[in-house]
Amino acid sequence: MHAIYELAGGFLVWAALVIFAGGTVIRMAWLAATARKKDAAVFHYFSFYYALRSILHWIVPFASRNMRLHPVMTAVTFIFHLCLIITPIFAAAHVILIAESWGGGWWYLPDAAADIMTLTVILGCVFFLIRRISKKDVRYLSTAGDYILLVIVAAPFLSGYWSYHQWSGFEIAGIVHMLSGELLLICIPFTRLFHMILFPFTRGYAGSEFGGMRSARDW
Amino acid sequence: MAALKSNILRLLVVFLVLAACAAAARAYVTIVEDSAFDDRQMRPQVSFEHNEHNEKAGIESCNTCHHFYENGEKRKNSDSVGMECSSCHYKAESGELELIRIYHKQCKSCHLQKEQGPVQCGQCHRKTGENP
């Protein structure tokens, strides 16, 4: 158990961070090169003003018409994504481990808050799973990869929740938590989880075209 | 006279027994405490059976854990028994994270090195209050 703990808490953390960062840079470079070759107009007509206007419009809950048309999905997705990003960065145990390994550290959440936020992420994953299965159009578009990805996202939160509450076998849940968190990080650049990085670019592209070219309002 | 002598002897025995009890009680620590933590701890306090731990770990010298440093060097023949970790390792301005860090380092680095003993959060900060 000690050997695997050290591996998961040492080498694999670095491996995951390097693959995440390296994969992100390589994929972005590849996407930029491909766009330059196949759709050079994207660069030519890119407008920072309309890109930022559109990004702002789409990160404010219920600002866009599409979000108002789907209020439940909008509420769930905003809360889900906020908890998904904030919890791992500001979980007390994570900050403490960073202080132990590298020194420093930053502000952290009270455990009770992180606990609720973790549960929120898990319930969000359940919501997305049910949505994927029950909504005809979404089910039609879903591939096996989409379901696997949902499990990959839920796994570190579920195992973290398990470990925190010290249910039976929590030591194994702790190891699973570390490994699944690393797997999630590694998956980001190579799967559709890449929307985490790509969102401002795709939104900025659409914003530039609709605002800068067609002089349309942002819906 | 003989009665007085034996009474003094009895008193001496009682005193010795009490002294031994007091000494044993001092060594018999069962929980990790430090006044610098106040009531700010979020996780359950760590139960720590001092004597049992040292027997299991084969620790004989107090300063294996109760180390004492002077000018950045560990003093072989000194120890910090009776001192709280925070008296050297904690300044109010460094924040509680520093105090947490040094406590974790003290236990965990040794456990990892020896590949024995708890290293995960829940293995020490038990919700049930059981021993790790």
Describe this structure in words.
- Chain A has 219 residues and is mostly helical.
- Chain A has a domain at 2-62 and 128-213.
- Chain A has twelve helices and no strands.
- The longest helix of chain A has 28 residues, at 11-38.
- Chain B has 132 residues and is mainly alpha-helical.
- Chain B has helices at residues 2-27, 50-57, 86-89, 95-114, 121-124, and strands at residues 69-70, 73-74.
- Helices cover 47% and strands 3% of the residues of chain B.
- In chain B, strand 1 (69-70) and strand 2 form a beta hairpin.
- Chain B folds into two domains: 1-27; 31-124, Cytochrome C3 (Alpha-Beta Complex), CATH 3.90.10.10.
- A two-stranded antiparallel sheet of chain B has the order 1-2.
- The chains are: A mainly alpha (219), B mainly alpha (132).
- Chain A binds chain B through residues 2-3, 5-6, 92-93, 95-96, 99-100, 103, 105, 110-112, 163-166, 170-171, 174, and chain B through 42-43, 97-98, 100-101, 104-105, 108, 111-112, 115-116, 119-123, 126-128.
What share of the residues of chain B does DSSP label as strand, in percent? under 5%
CATH top level of the largest domain in chain B is Alpha Beta
Percent of residues in β-strands of chain A: under 5%
Q: Which structural category fits the helices and strands of chain A?
A: mainly alpha
CATH superfamily of the largest domain in chain B: Cytochrome C3
What structural class should be given to the helix and strand makeup of chain B? Answer: mainly alpha
Distance between the termini of chain A: 54 Å
User: On the 0-100 scale, what is the average pLDDT of chain A?
Assistant: 95
Number of helices of chain B: 5
Helix content estimate of chain A: over 70%
**What ranges of chain B have pLDDT less than 50 throughout 5 or more consecutive residues?**
none
